[in-house]
Amino acid sequence: MKKSIFIIALILMGFGIKAVAGNPDVCYVKTADKVYFGQDLKMGLLTTKIVSADGTITKVKTNEVKSYMHDNRLFELMPLICEEGDTMCYDFMEYLTSRSGLKLYRYRCCMNCDVRYGYFVFKDDKLHLRVNLMNADSVLPFFGIKPLKVC
Would you say the C-alpha torsion 20, 27, 145, 139 has a positive or negative sign? Predict the structure, then answer.
């Protein structure tokens, strides 16, 4: 009796492990008019490659990409705004969380080989607040984020 219960438990654990390991991350790329799904994503300077489950590769021009998800992280094309309020350019920012209609994005910047993060709060796709050293200790905990080095 003990052996049969032990064997049944081993079989059930085997199915559980297979179920957990059998769900690969889904990647997608969104352009203005279409969404491409795949199992892996490779961002290049000129083209973005989406690798599907059967191994086929779909290429999309990188300048047409509006957002993408890779490794369970969502990146959206957002305006990068300097401290004076001018839009410098558009770049991909990582979507972190939202609360009360506000969305928190993180932008990774490298300054003198030191990785820092710039945080931006958007409301209705418009900049609501740029997180800086003065307000980081109050804004980031509002979203449940522990403050890090801020650009």
Answer: negative
Largest CA distance in the chain: 75
Tens of pLDDT, residue by residue over 128-147, are 888 888 888 888 889 888 76
How many CA atoms lie within 13 Å of 73's alpha carbon, on the beta-carbon side? 11
Query: Tokens 């490298």 — which residue?
Result: 110
pTM assigned to the model: 0.74
Task: Please count the residues of the chain.
Answer: 151
- List the Cα angle 13/19/25 in 5-degree steps: 145
Min mean pLDDT across 4-18, 30-44, 66-80, 100-114 is at 4-18
Q: Which tokens is 48 given?
A: 């973005």
Instruction: List all residues 6 or more positions away from 32 whose beta carbon is below 8 Å from its beta carbon.
Output: 64, 66
Based on C-alpha coordinates, what's the Rg of the chain?
Answer: 21
| CA 120/CA 106 separation, integer angstroms | 6
Domain ranges of the chain: 23-70, 72-151
Q: Which CATH architecture has domain 23-70?
A: Roll (2.30)
Q: Nearest 5°: CA angle at 16, between 21 and 56?
A: 25
